[in-house]
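haha ok so turns out i had the wrong file open the whole time. this is the CORRECT one, sorry everyone. sequence first:
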Amino acid sequence: MLNLVLLEPEIPANTGNIGRTCVVTGTRLHLIRPLGFSLDDRALARAGLGYWPNLDVRLYEGWEGFLAANGLSPAAPEPRLHLLTKKARCLYTEARYRDGDFIVLGKESAGLPEELLARYAACCERIPMLEDRASLANRDDWKHPAGEDTEHAALRAQDICGNFIDPNDYRISALNLSNAAAVALYEALRQTGFTG
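then structure:
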């Protein structure tokens, strides 16, 4: 079984999409608090996450708790970890995935903390993407008109896919979290002989 780990996810729709992907692939989902949303029954029902009871999901209070609960040594990089970051040199397709590995993604607004990237540098992988100027050709459409209300200004802090952008130069930060998770997970499943 493969494992997807979300460190401090902020957007419930992304976690919901990732949870659905985990259900249909038999992947275990690990959520490390704090979460930017509630997982109580009422919130799950309101979000239409009827499949949630079928999801193998584990919750942790922090990174160290996650490591301890899964028998991962906090003292040294673990080959069982795959930290997705746009700051890595190694491509996710160059990594070797094995059954039981953990694919780790950070929160939508900031990614994984620099401390973790430095600590697990040998485990960092990236998904190749076009440069921002090539992928966001409509950046001028995102300029804030004079007198725009704050509600609409907040919406412009994200692109159409929910990616956070820099309001000073309108850059995309990276793939949407659920897309990045699916891309890496399906490569790991391909390498491990998933028959689904």
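DSSP finds seven helices and six strands in the chain.
again sry for the mixup
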